[in-house]
Structure formats: C-alpha cells, structure tokens
Amino acid sequence: MTTATHCITPRGRETACVTPRATTVLPRADVWESEDAAHLAIELPGVPATGLELRVEGDRLTVAGTVDLGAPEGRLLFAEWQPRSFQRSFVLTDDADRDAISAQLKDGVLHVRVPRRAERRPRTIDVRVAAD
C-alpha cells in the first residue's frame, strides 16, 4: 500500500511523490526432490542470515524475516525502497526427517534440504535364488 504526499525536489519545486509503507512479500521458490531429500531454493535478495527465521511446526516448514536497509546518511531526495517482511510455508511429507533439515544462504538464495527418513526412502530389494 502506498500513499501520495507532497515532496520538495532538490531545486525547490513541489511535486507529488509516493511514500511507501512496509509490506509483506511472498518470495519466489523452486522445490524439487532427489532420491534421498526434498530441496527448496528461495529467492531472498538483500536478506542477511541474521534476518531469517526457519522453523518447523507440525507438518509445516516456514521461512520468515524482515528486510530493512535503515535510514541513509544525508538528506533523502527520493526513495522507492521500503522495509518489507516475508513469509513462505511449505507442507512437509510424512517421510521428512524434521530433525535433519539444513539450510544455507548464498548469493541471495536460501537453499534448504529436507532429507527423507532412511526407513522411508525407496530401496531395491535383492532377490536371491532359493536352494533346492
């Protein structure tokens, strides 16, 4: 949500400008699976690891946090950046090993690995020939 206000340009002329308010955004994500785990890649540009919260509650994995650049030094002439919070939840399957979930933040992308419990992973069963 934004509100229109009046701003003074550097040359002293009054003009209409936009004053942004904090918003909640839904970060983009990719989800895929390998034989032993589910994987998530969540786009979080500008978010430091200290601004992240990753939690498991019941069958949900939730990623949440806030991005705020803070006030710049000097006199602000124009601003489009706004503080924003984000949250995204994913439903975990029954075979997810909730205690072994790991996450790594690199280049603005949060990579989350949700391993499958060993007893629930697909496996091949050897068939032996019975002796007569």
Please count the beta strands (DSSP E, at least 2 residues each). Answer: 10
Mean pLDDT: 80
- CA-CA gap between termini: 79 Å
- The chain-level structural class is mainly beta
The number of helical segments is 0
Low-confidence parts lasting 5 or more residues at pLDDT below 50? 1-10, 14-20
**Beta fraction of the residues?**
over 45%
Q: Strand order within the widest sheet?
A: 3-8-7-6
Q: Any idea what the radius of gyration is?
A: 23 Å
Biggest pleated-sheet summary:
4 strands, mixed
Portion of residues in helices?
under 10%
Described by the principal axes of the CA atoms, the overall outline is: elongated
SSE run? EEEEEEEEEE
Blueprint (SSEs and pairs):
Layout: E1 2-8, E2 14-20, E3 23-25, E4 29-33, E5 37-43, E6 52-57, E7 60-67, E8 84-91, E9 102-106, E10 109-115
Parallel strand pairs: 3-8
Antiparallel strand pairs: 1-2, 4-5, 5-10, 6-7, 7-8, 9-10
Q: Can you give me a brief rundown of this structure?
A:
With 132 residues, the protein is an all-beta fold.
Could you characterize the architecture of this molecule?
With about 130 residues, this protein is mostly beta strands. Helices cover about 0% and strands about 50% of the residues. It has strands at about 1-10, 15-20, 25, 30-35, 35-45, 50-55, 60-65, 85-90, 100-105, 110-115. The strands form three sheets. The chain has a four-stranded mixed β-sheet with strand order 3-8-7-6, with no helix packed on it. A four-stranded antiparallel β-sheet has the order 4-5-10-9, with no helix packed on it. The protein is elongated, with a radius of gyration of 23 Å. The relative contact order is 0.23.
